[in-house]
């Protein structure tokens, strides 16, 4: 899908591919030797980093909030970026210094200002808080509307029904079943229901017994979800396992001053659930929920400054990235954790909202304060 860009720029990316091939063999005349339990399959912590910051306008707040990877050559980023140049919105070509979409097509980045349904039901400038994709459609989600892009077609879905339900901490995800979910506050979690591309979109709300923000969500099976709820204002927190409509709340005893019964980020592989309850990583088998363990970040990192984790994602059980407050970027390789001091130096005073991995790349988005300006941040890591 190609559209007339409001502004375009290219960023050269150099891929440094590294591959380690591990091979084992055994003598078929002898029984296999069980592996040493202290030996864990690991991946590299070693990444090179590049940094991109956007905001040329004093007094405006720029930030990137969410990422959707369709494939390595089709990646969408949404948020708000203010520039010193006038840009044309899509489709009505209104001019402003505002952009809300960044797209990577495998060769270059382009920026655009897509429109959406606004408060009075008209189509106008909108802030996109989340982006997701399914069946060749990309969904740019504002507080009141969803702009669906599918090849050369564009549909504006009126979602003003979400007003007051999805406001603040808005997030969206496309899960392994193909279902799309949105969550935020107050205590709001819902599936986006659509018969097919470009068809009307409705919502199926999943009731929760809380008014605190839904911070984390992951689908692990048919009608089976894990949900993390946490309020900055009140400290209220819950950690739910929902299966076939029944809700089980997780509760674990604290360790010292650290609570273990809340989570702010979730990710699931094919066979394991991962959750962060800083400074812990919780790992649980999906087949046997009694097979679970808490791993303490601080065993590796000491008292190094770790902010609250806002989002996590992975390619495998031993290849997971975490991002969050106070410029926190952390990698888990199946055995150890690493926080990237280089990023803390190059992108100081940053808050990261999302992370995505594809191939040998990791993409991180958020915002930072720099010399009195509020800049959108995109950080790209390449595995060495």
Low-pLDDT runs of 5+ residues are: 1-39
CATH superfamily: YVTN repeat-like/Quinoprotein amine dehydrogenase
Total count of strands: 30
Q: Portion of residues in helices?
A: under 10%
Structural class: mainly beta
**Global geometry:** globular
Domain module tally: 1
CATH architectural category: 7 Propeller
The level-1 CATH class: Mainly Beta
Binned strand content: over 45%
Characterize the largest beta sheet: strand count, sense, and whether it forms a barrel.
6 strands, mixed
Mean pLDDT: 87
Distance between the termini: 32 Å
CATH topology descriptor: Methylamine Dehydrogenase, Chain H
Tell me the radius of gyration.
21 Å
Query: If helices are DSSP runs of H or I spanning 4 or more residues, what is the number of helices?
Result: 2
Task: Characterise this structure.
The protein is an all-beta fold and 384 residues long. The protein has helices at 298-301, 341-346, and strands spanning 7-9, 47-54, 63-71, 74-90, 95-104, 109-117, 123-125, 130-134, 137-141, 145-150, 153-158, 171-174, 180-184, 188-194, 201-205, 214-221, 224-230, 237-243, 246-249, 265-268, 272-277, 280-285, 292-296, 309-316, 319-324, 329-332, 337-339, 350-358, 361-370, 373-383. The strands form seven sheets. Strands 1, 3, 4, 5, 6 and 7 form a six-stranded mixed sheet that branches. A four-stranded antiparallel sheet has the order 2-30-29-28. Mean pLDDT is 87; it is low at 1-39. The chain has a single domain (43-383), classed as Methylamine Dehydrogenase, Chain H. The radius of gyration is 21 Å and the shape is globular. It is built from two helices and 30 strands.
């Amino acid at each position: 899908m190609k559209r007339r860009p409001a502004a375009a720029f290219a960023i050269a990316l150099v891929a440094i591919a590294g591959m380690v091939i591990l091979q084992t063999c055994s003598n078929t005349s002898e029984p296999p030797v069980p592996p040493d339990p202290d030996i864990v399959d690991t991946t590299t912590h070693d990444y090179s980093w590049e940094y991109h910051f956007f905001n040329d306008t004093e007094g405006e707040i720029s930030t990137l909030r969410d990422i959707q990877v369709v494939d390595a050559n089709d990646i969408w980023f949404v948020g708000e970026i203010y520039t010193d140049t006038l840009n044309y919105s899509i489709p009505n070509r209104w001019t402003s210094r505002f952009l809300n979409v960044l797209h990577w097509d495998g060769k270059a980045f382009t920026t655009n200002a897509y429109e959406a349904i606004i408060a009075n039901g008209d189509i106008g400038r909108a802030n996109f808080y989340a982006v997701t994709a399914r069946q060749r459609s990309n969904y740019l989600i504002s507080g009141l509307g969803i702009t669906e892009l599918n090849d050369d077609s564009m549909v504006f879905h009126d979602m003003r029904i979400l007003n007051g339900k999805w406001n603040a901490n808005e997030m969206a995800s496309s899960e392994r079943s193909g279902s799309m979910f949105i969550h935020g506050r107050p205590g709001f979690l819902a599936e986006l229901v659509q018969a097919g591309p470009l068809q009307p979109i409705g919502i199926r709300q999943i009731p929760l017994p809380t008014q605190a923000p839904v911070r984390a969500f992951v689908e692990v099976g048919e009608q089976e979800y894990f949900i993390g709820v946490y309020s900055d204002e009140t400290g209220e927190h819950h950690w739910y396992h929902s299966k076939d409509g029944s809700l089980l709340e997780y509760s674990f005893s604290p360790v010292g001053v650290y609570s273990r019964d809340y989570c702010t980020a979730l990710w699931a592989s094919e066979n394991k659930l991962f959750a962060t309850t800083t400074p812990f990583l919780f790992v649980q088998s999906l087949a046997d929920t009694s097979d679970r363990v808490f791993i303490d970040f601080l065993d590796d990192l000491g008292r190094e400054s770790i902010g609250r984790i806002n989002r996590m994602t992975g390619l495998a059980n031993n290849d997971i990235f975490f991002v969050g407050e106070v410029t926190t970027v952390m990698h888990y390789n199946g055995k150890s954790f690493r926080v990237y001091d280089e990023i803390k130096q190059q992108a100081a005073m940053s808050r990261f909202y999302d992370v995505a991995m594809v191939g040998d790349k990791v993409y991180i988005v958020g915002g930072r304060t720099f010399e009195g300006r509020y800049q959108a941040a995109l950080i790209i890591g390449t595995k060495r």
